[in-house]
Every structure is written in C-alpha cells, then in structure tokens.
C-alpha cells in the first residue's frame, strides 16, 4: 500500500526517487530503465520503492509533471512582465517555449521515449498541459484586446488555434530538425503571421 504522501518524509523520499529516475531516464532512456535500477540508485529495496510508486509509468508521470510545472512557471514569469506589450508577450511565449524545449532535448537525447510513454499511459497529463498553456495564451489575448493591440472576438477558439500553430516549437522530439537560431527565426515568423491576423486595424 502506498503512503499517503502527505508527510514531509514521504514527500522527500518521493522527490529523491523522482530525481534518481530523472537522471537514469536522461542517461539510459525510459525503456531501458527498470524499477530495480531506480531502487538501487536511491539505496532502497525494490519492494520499498513500490510503496511510493506503483510502477515505472507512475514514476514517469511524476517526472513529466515536474517538467510541465517548471515549464509553465517559466512561461508565466516571462510573459507577465508589465513592461511587455501584448504583441511582445505573444512573441515571448513562443520563444520561451522553443528555448525550453530545445534545452530539454539537448540535455536528454532520449526524451522521446518519455514523451511516447506519457502520451500512451497518461494522456491526461498532455491534456492538462494543453489546457494550461491555452489559458495563458487566452490571458495574452485578453490583455491585447484591453490595450487595443488586438481585436479578438472568440478568445478561447483563437487561443487554442495559436497553441496548435506553435506546436512545432513545443515538442522536444522536434528539436533535432533545425539549429536553435533557425528555429527562432521560424517561431518569430509564425508569431508575426498570427499577429497580422488578430491585430486591431486602424
């Protein structure tokens, strides 16, 4: 039976397990990593490891959750700067998304294995990520309408469409397609096209 996870000790142990798994996933890949290896890396028995996570997929979900949380926190921090116009916030969103994905892919060449596993075993994480990012884009559009930069009638549909348009810069497994500078040029071009479509005329 798993512990409740509510005690400080349990939380600390779970974090140590996730950190060990993160290192092993990054080095050897998700598919080749076993529960026994993660247990050995955290200096505990495999049986004890199962008290905190029911299987490897559960650990992968915890790892993915931490990556998503880091990403969202960085996005919010960057796009919420008061000095930025709505246009600049949208540009910042795209570039921050790209650079974060590029960094993750550069640090972990086997990230595609984890992405595949999460999409297959925990699609709810992907849907939650999409909803959170779309909500952040919606906030930018609302701000743009307020400042008079944009003229967006349906905020939610437009935010969802922008999210889809930026998907190339959002997935680590795509990052090997181009050098970062070329990716940034593409991201800026896409954002400029989006802005032309939503800006307030006159």
Quick tags:
Arc Repressor Mutant, subunit A; 71% helix; Tetracycline Repressor, domain 2; mainly alpha; 202 residues; elongated; 2 domains
Question: What is the structure about, briefly put?
Answer:
Helices cover 71% and strands 0% of the residues. It is elongated and about 65 Å long.
Verbal overview:
With 202 residues, this protein is mainly α. It folds into two domains: 1-54, Orthogonal Bundle (Arc Repressor Mutant, subunit A), CATH 1.10.10; 64-198, Orthogonal Bundle (Tetracycline Repressor, domain 2), CATH 1.10.357. Helices cover 71% and strands 0% of the residues. The chain has nine helices and no strands. The protein has helices at 8-28, 35-41, 46-49, 56-79, 86-107, 111-121, 123-147, 155-165, 180-198. Helix 4 runs antiparallel to helix 5 and helix 5 runs antiparallel to helix 9 (180-198). The longest helix has 25 residues, at 123-147. The chain is elongated, with a radius of gyration of 20 Å. The N and C termini lie far apart (64 Å).
Overall body shape: elongated
> Which residues form runs of ≥5 with pLDDT under 50?
1-5
CATH superfamily of the largest domain: Tetracycline Repressor, domain 2
On the 0-100 scale, what is the average pLDDT?
90
